[in-house]
Every structure is written in C-alpha cells, then in structure tokens.
Fold this protein.
Amino acid sequence: MINFGDTIALNKKAQFYYNQGNLKEAIAWCYEVIKYQPDFVEVYEILGSFLQLNGDINAAVRAYIKATEVLLDNGSVYSNLDRSLFDEYGSQIFQLINDNPGQMSFQEYAYITNVVGGKVPGNFLIFGVGKDSLLWLGVNRGGKTLFLEDDKDWLNQVKVGCENSIEAYLVEYGTRVYLWKSLLEEYSQGNDCLWMVLPEKVLFTKWDFILVDAPAGYSEEKPGRMKSIYMAAKLAMESGNTDIFIHDCDREVEDIYSDYFFDKGYLINQVHKLKHYSLKRY
C-alpha cells in the first residue's frame, strides 16, 4: 500500500516531467498518483492544467470537476456536480481563467455554476461586472440577472463586450479599504454607516442568489467590499431564501465582514477564496 508521503513523491515526479517538457509522461504520472490516492485534490488540479496544455479540454474539465468534488467531500448537498452544466459551460470557464489569471479559479466558477444552475431560473444580483458577466447570464438563463458597478469606464467597456445585453446600474461606495475597522466600529455603535443608495429595483426584488465580487479591494485606497457585503446581507435577509457568494475571502476585509454579517451557521461551504452562505426562511 502506497502511503501519502509516497503519493507526494509521485506527484513531484509528474511535476518533474512537466518541467522537462514531457507532458505525456507528466499526465501518466498524475494518473498513477490518482490510482493510489483518489482523494488527493492537488493532483486533479495539476492533471487538469496538464490536460489543458495538451489541448484535451474535455478531459481537463473532468479533472477540475473531480478536484472540486473532492474539495467538497463534506456531505453537503452541493458535493456532487451536475456534469451536464459543464458540458455546456466548461470551455467558457476555461477561457475565463486563461483570460483573467488571479481572478476566480475553475473550482470557484464551477461551484457557483453548480449551485445557481441547479435552481434556475431565479433572481441573481451581482456586485461587479467583468469578463464573466456573460457566464452568469447564461447560467441563470430565463431568470433576472442584474449587475452593480462603481467604475463607469469599466461598466461601459463590459457592456460593449456583452453587446449591451446586460442590465447594470452605476453605484457609489464612498469608502476606502483602510477605513474598514472604523466603519465596523461605528456600525457596531448603532450608526448605519454601511447603507448605500441602490435602485428601487434592487431594493424591492427578492433575490435568490447574490454574488459579491466588487468593488476593488486589493489596496488600501480602493473602495473595499465593506458596503457590498453589508448590503448583500440586508438584501438576503429581506428576501428570505438566498444563496450568497462572497469572493476574495483570503483578504482581511472580506473574511471579517462576511463572518460579522452572516452567522457562521449559514456558512455552507468554502471553496478556495469563495464563501457560500445560505439564508432560509422557514
């Protein structure tokens, strides 16, 4: 029986062959690792990248899907992915992660696609527009998908790229990341300083899904997601039956604000930097 340490060694051997430019042998060694350690999530991720480089997109999608399922093997209702969704959207997700390195991972995209795609059509609110806006429109086919964006130039650019097929509204945050502690302290003292002006259409719609992936929060001078996380919580509580996804929870603001405004009992899963909360009204 090969132990976990041996599996790590086999995985390194696959990486060695890749570094030598021998993709065929690298892929073969990944399958050797899987034979002995079928729940080793990293090898599926590596295999997916190797298969993609080798031009076998369908096999790469299957490898990434398996990586996601192993990652989610916690008994939750979302542990198994609907393969038919990825026959339709797998290649599009691959293109997104190629065009947007450092954004969502395949597993994060796959997870949201699986949850939303399994419940459509619905009302889907997204903080932030981007190259993935068309993906979300497709996944929520037949439902209402609405975007909120604070960067006018970026919004116009995305609209052109989407042939003006998206419904999006310009919003203002008026915050900076470095203010996150003082804003949270002020809020905890009874001042609703995190409320933001939103279109009535947003405030009076019952949302089935909310994704917080904006505004920018990667530096102290950027607006940060303090208000978008807070408003997502408020809208979800008003709606009563909502799945909420918050991205970039490896960062302090997203991690602390999501834990503050969503009870940990509502946390369903975390996939890489993505947290999934579910608020249900019984």
In short: The CA atoms of residues 64 and 209 lie 24 Å apart.
